[in-house]
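Section 5: illustrative case.
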C-alpha cells in the first residue's frame, strides 16, 4: 500500500491528493477556460486484473480520498469510476469491463465476525455517503456487491449500456454489508431490492435504468463525456448551496414529510442571508451568461 506517496500539489492552495497504486485521482477543471472555478476529482479504483474488487488497500484509499476531497475548497464534485481492462497477455482472454466486481472475495477466507466488525467500522461506503459534496458513480461494466454499494453511496449513477448490476453475496452465503440492503431500497423499492438480494441475479443497464437504479445509460464511448457534462453543470453552482441542497434532500430519507418540509423551509430561508444568493440573483437580473464567481457562503 503506497498511500504515503504524495505528488506535488497541482494547484496553489490545494493539498496533493492521496495517491496509491489502487486509487488514482485526476483533477479536471470545472471550466476549461477559467482556472478559478475549481476542479472535479475523477477517482479511479485501479485493480483491473481483479475487476477492481475492493480489498483493504482500496477501502483505505477511498477513505483517504474522501478526507482529502472534503477538505479542499477547490474540489467541487467527485466522480468515482473503475479502471479499464488491461491489454491481455498473449494467448489469454481479455478481462471484462468493471466498475467494481464486489468485495475482494479472497480476503473473506478465514475471516470471522470480529474481523468484519473491525474492518466495517468507519467504512468507505459511509465515508462516500457522508461527503458533503456531490458525488457521481460512473459505471462501465460490472457493479456487483460492494461495488454496487459504492455506486449507491454516490448521489448519482451514470452507466454504460454494457454494465451489469447485482448483489451476488447470497451465493457466497452472505448478504450485502456496505449499506446495500438499506440504500438500494430507497432507490428501487422494497420488492426489487429483495429480488436482487435474495436471488443474487444480475440485471442489465437498461433494466437498472427502468427501475431507477441508475440515472442515465450511454454507449461506453459516450459515458465519460456525458458524465463530465453533468458534473460540470452541477459543479458550476454555489458550493454552499449544493451542500445545503444535498443535506435537505438526504434528510427526506430519514424524516417524516411533516418535519422534512419544515427543515426545507428553514434552510431555504437561511440561504437568503448568504452572499451567494445575492450573487446568483444579481447575475440573473443582469442577464450575465457566465457562471458567477461564488463566494461559497
Ligand atoms: N473478488 C476477488 N477477485 C475477483 C472478484 C472479486 N469480487 N471478481 C472478479 N475477480 C477476479 C477473478 O478471480 C479473476 O481473477 P484471475 O484472472 O486472477 O483468476 C479476474 O477477477 C477476472 O474475473 P473472471 O471471473 O475471470 O471474469 P468473468 O468474465 O469470467 O466473470 C464475473 C466476471 C464478475 C461474473 C465474476 O468475476 C464474478 O462472479 N465475480 C465475483 C462477483 C461477486 O460475487 N461479488 C460480490 C462479492 S461479496
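Designed sequence:
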Amino acid at each position: 500500500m503506497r498511500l504515503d506517496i504524495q505528488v506535488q500539489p497541482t494547484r496553489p492552495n490545494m493539498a496533493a491528493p492521496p495517491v496509491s497504486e489502487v486509487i488514482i485521482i485526476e483533477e479536471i477543471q470545472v471550466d476549461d477556460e477559467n482556472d478559478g472555478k475549481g476542479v472535479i476529482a475523477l477517482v479511479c479504483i485501479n485493480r483491473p486484473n481483479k475487476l477492481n474488487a475492493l480489498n483493504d488497500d482500496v477501502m483505505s484509499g477511498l477513505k483517504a480520498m474522501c478526507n482529502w476531497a472534503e477538505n479542499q475548497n477547490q474540489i467541487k464534485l467527485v466522480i468515482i469510476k473503475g479502471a479499464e481492462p488491461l491489454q491481455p497477455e498473449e494467448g489469454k482472454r481479455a478481462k471484462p469491463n468493471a466498475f467494481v466486481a464486489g468485495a475482494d472475495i479472497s480476503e473473506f477466507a478465514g475471516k470471522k465476525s470480529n474481523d468484519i466488525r473491525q474492518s466495517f467500522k468507519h467504512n468507505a461506503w459511509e465515508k462516500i455517503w457522508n461527503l458533503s459534496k456531490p458525488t457521481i458513480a460512473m459505471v462501465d461494466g460490472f457493479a456487483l456487491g460492494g461495488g454496487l454499494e459504492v455506486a449507491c453511496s454516490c448521489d448519482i449513477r451514470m452507466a454504460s449500456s454494457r454494465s451489469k448490476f447485482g448483489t451476488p453475496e447470497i451465493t457466497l452465503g452472505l448478504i450485502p454489508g456496505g449499506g446495500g440492503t438499506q440504500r438500494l431500497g430507497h432507490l428501487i423499492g422494497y420488492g426489487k431490492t429483495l429480488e436482487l438480494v435474495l436471488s443474487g441475479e444480475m440485471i442489465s443497464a437498461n433494466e437498472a435504468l427502468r427501475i431507477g437504479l441508475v440515472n442515465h445509460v450511454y454507449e461506453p464511448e459516450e459515458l465519460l463525456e456525458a458524465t463530465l457534462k453533468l458534473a460540470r453543470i452541477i459543479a458550476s453552482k454555489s458550493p454552499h448551496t449544493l451542500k445545503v441542497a444535498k443535506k435537505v434532500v438526504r434528510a427526506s430519507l430519514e424524516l417524516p414529510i411533516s418535519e422534512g418540509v419544515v427543515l426545507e423551509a428553514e434552510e431555504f430561508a437561511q440561504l437568503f442571508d448568504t452572499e451567494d444568493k445575492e450573487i446568483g440573483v444579481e447575475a440573473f437580473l443582469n442577464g450575465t451568461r457566465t457562471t458567477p464567481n461564488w463566494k461559497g457562503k
